[in-house]
Amino acid sequence: MPQDLTAAGCEFPSSVSTHDDSPSIGATAAPFDPHGLSGEQLVAMFRTMVVQRTLENRGFQLNRQGKIPFASASEGHEAVQAGAAMAFQRGKDILVPYYRDLGLDLGIGLTPYEVLLSLFARDADHSSGRQFPHHYASRRLGLQTISSVIAAQLPHAVGAAYALKYRKETGRAVLVTFGDGATSEGEWHESLNFAAVHALPIVFLCENNEWAISTPLSKQTAQPDLHKRAAGYGMPGVVVDGMDPMACYAAVKAALERARSGGGPTLVEAKCYRFLSHTTDDDDRTYRSREEVERRRLDDPVPCFEARLIAAGVLSSEEAEALKRSVLEEANEATDRAEAMAYPSPQDLYGNVYADGWQPWR
Amino acid sequence: MAKTDTEASTFERHGLSDEQLRGIFRNMLLQRQLDNRGFQLNRQGKVPFALGSEGHEALQAGAAMAFQRGRDILAPYYRDLGLALGIGLTPYEILLSIFARAADHNGGRQFPNHYSSKAAGLMSFSSILAAHLPHAVGAAFALKYRGEAGRAVLATCGDGTTSEGEWHESMNFAAIHKLPFVMLVENNEWAISTPLSKQMAQPEIWKRAEGYGMPGRRFNGFDPIDTYAAVKEALDRARSGGGPSIVEGTCYRYLAHSTDDNDMTYRSREEVLEHRKLDPVPRFEHVLLENGVMTEADVAALRADVLRETNEATDAAEAMPYPEPGELYTHVYEGAWQPWQ
Fold it and tell me: Looking at B26, B253, B275, B283, which residue is catalytic?
């Protein structure tokens, strides 16, 4: 059944506010600036955003149907992830994401089928169904496998960047992402400091959606402008409107170019918002108001970008509708195909755990 | 790196009396003397280990002067001999610790130079860099939780510690909860053999404060009065509900890290000698003489007194017994339970 992804109330992009009372960072005032992207690339970004929205929603549906154990939410992150993915160089850069990066993973080349194999925990999945849902990995794409532990991926990411530098591989960089909650972790601090001391080819992208499960930004830190921590490490800090995919593309591209050319690390903070609960196991009605969420929905990046593309003549509304239908068809087809695949066999429990196929019961 | 100005015309007391200034100088001399005594005893084979704190005398004496005995809590690190003395520990207590005698505050069980004193408000700590900071902000949280105004926690650390994850988590926590907490960073440019340039890309540590949403400032750690003013401002802010801050004192570590370290393997003698020109002890002596706070005779008498006190304390502590082997499990488990019974 086709879904209407247009949020009520969004016509032309409204101003994006970062807190209940803080001034907007002026998304409305910004002119339509594709930052050098062609019409085709803009539509591709939009498509990634729609696929992300569709697949995320599909994950929740499958969970509520009892078909998969768990799914994590990423609504509100579509712009930052599509924009960052557009700046990522496939086959050269390395991505170390976190568990909310469905759009980034899709944007660098993961297919809906691969995503669903992971959610369904099938044997044909990249991790043979052994990884936690939304913890993708793809050697082919340069997508490093992660755990759920917040900020655990940061030391790994700087390690990968250190390897690039050690091997003198220019033209390559690591893009590591995380939420606002991760910036309170000790590993976050140690990683940024290490990257700065060694001038590593890495970009730290903070997807600040103002909520770490149920902890609001105001209880997470006394400095809500997280990019301001960059100066303390001796690296540049940049803030960008996380609801504008083109601005995110530009910011991440500049940072990745700096990293690839030996200019060292950058901290990019994209201000966005998490519209849904943390995951299918969370109920955000217990800790935040519906009014707050509804108000922030006015800046929903998916319908807002659609409206801007149509207004700029990049896409017609018929083409947009056709795109959404095509995405839904692809999602349905991938769902059916993945669901039909086999689970891993119990005999394979120790596969890829020990070297040389050794199994403990022998 | 740290520049000092010994011109008498710029002498600013920040409200300190002559007696307090002499007290600061005495503390500095005592720290220097006891620090040296620890090395001597180790080289004589009488104590297993000692840590050097030469270069930190002004910073620690000035900070101690701002500390309120009986009210504030000190969460120091292992190089804070002068701070421990400054808040009321005696040379005898210091030497009992170095000699690992049973009469020591920790029964001779703590690592050398790891003091504690409930009476003085000095929290016991381990050698692990930054491990004491979550404890320190926890103590500050307790003060806030109990609604105890007029009290604060003064925590110290070196430049190396600021790279630790626990440092970051503690600073962030203190700032969110607006705790009565002061982070005093004693930046002596060396973390054992790691120079500041390899420790961080931004050598001015106080600049991290804005990233946590709290005030930060830097001061000359070779000047005890500048130190006193900066630490007092931060502690006053903390005690009155104004929240935490980071204050960074620049100084230098003249000796090796400890009696187990040889700094000749990683830094030049020229660098050390160059920094010796800024040695805070003779520098402050000069300031006091130039401004008539002390005479040459006063200084000589003071030095003799400090040496005498150190010698008496050394002899008294050395004569005390070691803990009994039978006491091995005392204060380890609750009650009188001992594992072999």
Answer: B253
Pick from A221, A231, A235: CB nearest B176: A221
Interhelix angle A317-339/A39-64, nearest 10 degrees:
40
Contact B283, B4 (CB under 8 A): yes
Position B10 in a domain:
no
What is the per-residue pLDDT across A19-54, written as a single tens digit (0 to 9) for each? 344 334 334 446 899 999 999 999 999 999 999 999
CATH number, domain with residue B49: 3.40.50.970
Nearest one of B235, B316, B305, B314 to B25, comparing CA atoms: B305
Is there a contact between B237 and B27 (Cβ–Cβ < 8 Å)? Answer: no
Backbone angles phi, psi at A130, to 5 degrees: -95, -15
Is B339 inside any structural domain? Answer: no
Question: What are the sequence ranges of the domains in chain A?
Answer: 44-343
- With cut-offs at 50, 70 and 90, classify the pLDDT of residue A133: confident
Q: Does domain A44-343 correspond to CATH entry 3.90.870.10? A: no
Q: Tell me, what's the ipTM?
A: 0.91
Residue numbers in A near B208 (CB within 8 A) = 229, 232-233
Nearest by CB to A228, from B165, B201, B210: name it: B210
Rounded to the nearest integer, the mean pLDDT of chain A is 91
- Among residues B221, B198, B219, B217, which one has the least CA distance to residue B209? B217
Q: Closest Cα partner for A211 from A154, A276, A147, A148?
A: A276
Provide the residue range defining the domain that includes B187: 15-318
Q: Which two tokens stand for residue A199?
A: 């001038």
Q: Which residue of B has its CA nearest to A265?
A: B201
Least Cα distance to A104 among A128, A77, A126, A131 occurs for A77
Cβ–Cβ < 8 Å for B315, B35:
no
The partner residue sitting opposite B213, judged by closest CB among A196, A199, A223, is: A223
What is the rounded distance in angstroms from the CA atom of residue A99 to the CA atom of residue B161?
31
Q: How far apart are CA B91 and CA B104, in angstroms?
A: 12
Global pTM value: 0.92
State the virtual CA torsion across A192, A198, A201, A204 in degrees, nearest 10. 10
**How big is the CA angle at A236 (ends A74 and A151), to the nearest 5 degrees?**
40
Burial class (CB in 10 A: 0-12, 13-18, 19+), A168: exposed
What is the chain B residue with the closest CA to A193?
Answer: B200
**How do beta strands B181-187 and B245-250 pair?**
parallel
Residue B253 annotated to the active site: yes
Buried b (16+ CB within 10 A) or exposed e, B236-266: ebbbeeebbbbbbbbbbbbbbbbbeeebeee
Average pLDDT, chain B: 94
User: Is residue B331 one of the residues assigned to a domain?
Assistant: no
Residue of chain B whose alpha carbon sits nearest to that of A228 = B211
For chain A, strand residue ranges (E) read 94-96, 174-179, 202-208, 211-212, 215-216, 237-241, 266-271
Set of chain A residues whose Cβ sits within 8 Å of the Cβ of B176: 219-222
